[in-house]
Amino acid sequence: MPEENITSVLTEKRTFSPLDSFIKQANLKKEEYERLLLKANTNFEGFWSDLALENLHWFKKWDKVLEWNEPFSKWFTGGKVNVSYNCLDRHLEKKSNKTAIIWIGENEEKRSVTYSELYEEVCKFSNVLVQLGIKEKDRIVIYMPMVIEAVVAMLACTRIGAVHSVVFGGFSTEALADRINDSKARMVITADGSYRRGQIVPLKLNVDEALKKCAAVEKVIVTQRSKNNIEMKSGRDYWYHEVISKASGDFKAKELDSEQPLFTLYTSGTTGKPKGILHTTAGYILWTTLTTKWVFDIKDSDVYWCTADIGWITGHSYVVYGPLSCGATVVIYEGAPNYPDWGRFWKTIQENKITIFYTAPTAIRAFMKAGLEWVKKYNLSSLRLLGTVGEPINPAAWMWYQKNIGNEKCPVVDTWWQTETGGILITPIPGITSTKPGSATFPLPGIFADVVDQNGKNIHGDQGGYLVVKKPWPSMIRTIYGDDERYKETYWKRIKGAYFTGDGAKKDKDGYFWLLGRVDDVIKVSGHLLSTMEVESSLVNHTAVAEAAVVGYPHEIKGEALCAFVVLKQDSVNKDHHLLSEELKKHVAKEIGPVAKPDQIKFTESLPKTRSGKIMRRLLRDIASGKQTVGDTTTLEDAGVLEKLRTQEEE
Ligand code: WTA
After folding, report:
1. What are phi and psi of 346, to 5 degrees?
2. Is the predicted pLDDT of residue 339 greater than 90, yes or no?
3. What is the pLDDT at residue 465?
4. pTM for this prediction
5. Ligand 1 test: best mutation among 309, 365, 401, 417, most atoms within 8 Å of CB?
6. By C-alpha distance, which of 55, 48, 44 is closest to 75?
7. Could you give the domains of the chain?
8. Is a pLDDT exceeding 60 seen at residue 121?
9. Ligand 1, atom nearest to 515 Cα
10. Which in 318, 451, 571, 625 has the greatest CB count within 10 A?
11. Band of the pLDDT at 634, cuts 50, 70, 90?
């Protein structure tokens, strides 16, 4: 971690206040927000206690709100609760015929289930799991496409108290086997295959391969989706539709301890072995429920679509648990955003009259690159709120989203959070916060996030520092599964007395938080610590640029120099690269100063990204410094990108 503070060079002056029409109908109003802030400051445990009572169903109330033994927290101890009860049973009285999930397959298929149908399916599947020998706290790996059965599987685990670990359906056999072994799973739930850009992904085949290395797995349940040929091993493999057809539709939700493990989810991190992030029951469902209400302003009439895969934390918290706990109608889509063409998302919004749309900056930039004509074809007037998550959103992409997708009438919530935080921590509240493009604005009530230097001292003004959280919160990571030491080392050793997020941030004079990317991506050029994200943001602000990634490489004089990998917009790809390169360097020098001017610009068709869309700057650093890539590339979306980049001419 660098010794000095980060120099922040970008300034953004535009602000957008919530519209009166939105303010009037918002779930969280200003007076209530201020009351919550005050309560969290003056009576921290009372604040959480009130919210837990108002927002969840409890079989038994807790004895203690918080047991804090840094860095280990226990929330609502002595309480009894069930996540699937909160997502299903409690809605049956008023919403049994309300649509819970609208599923859209890649080949235009559509299927919906109501709350009562989902409830019955989850009860049946809970019976199946128990009959196949699953007990409380057993681990189950879910390796499935975006289908309703995947949600059923997750909810059934929570109903019986089993711990799920969802592995993204795009991961390879090797990544799957590692995760199955690390979690010591007894069961895998999968599908025969799934569709991705018209191809069948052979999920069951991958499971068969992985299980050659995973001795602990006893049973496999297979959903039929793509009807490709698969082998079923007798005594181990069961068809979902066969076992569920015989199961009873009654299953009383188990009364589970608040701190019962709920799920583990593996994050790849930038290096080394994936970490199994452990979340537990009550605190997680409390915070995902609350944030869905506050940040997405969810209403009974909404049709809500978060485009994340259930293999990521966003899919857990804001496709499944938060929205279902709020009794919302949720859209899930199986396939690729650009299949059969770049109009897919906008067509889906038009056809389903989607009102709330939550996606990632990487997707937004890809749509910008594809061109506005795809957006213009469709009627997006049903939308009333837009969200983003996953990376800093550069102001140019924010403005494009707000203008072209939101028609300048939808609030944009740029939500900062992590797999480890379980739910959103820093975000605008749509009926309250005036937004600034590129800023995640403020921590939510109850969240004591701050920006500090390496000694834990507050940093004010435009200086960048380390983003930390100074008090525990209910949906925080409990530990890294099976590795308390690594948990302490990763999150609690760096800054005394605070959870260290690994991200750089600054607070501007109005107290707005600006995320500056991972601190590992900060580089030192001629004595200044620069956040590469700000240089990227400036490049993307140029009309020719769709996407950019900036990394440092060793330089004899400057110490480190900047190399920018640039993806051009469709209408600029044929421009003279040499001239454009000079123009871009000048553009950055003018926008943020000569110190940030890239020394090298490499044009490329695409950037190496993880499957969840994060740019893998570590690999680009190797390329920029002429090294062969070392380290883990199993999370890379398209391995061909690296080869192309290596052979690229410098401009
Ligand atoms: C980054 C995704 C800036 C950040 C929910 C964080 C963001 C990491 C934002 C976690 C945002 C996520 N602005 N950066 N709005 N949201 N990040 O675990 O670096 O996949 O630490 O969780 O993504 O990624 P993860």
Report:
1. -70, -35
2. yes
3. 92
4. 0.91
5. 417
6. 48
7. 83-97+116-254 (3.40.50.980), 520-650 (3.30.300.30)
8. yes
9. 3
10. 318
11. low
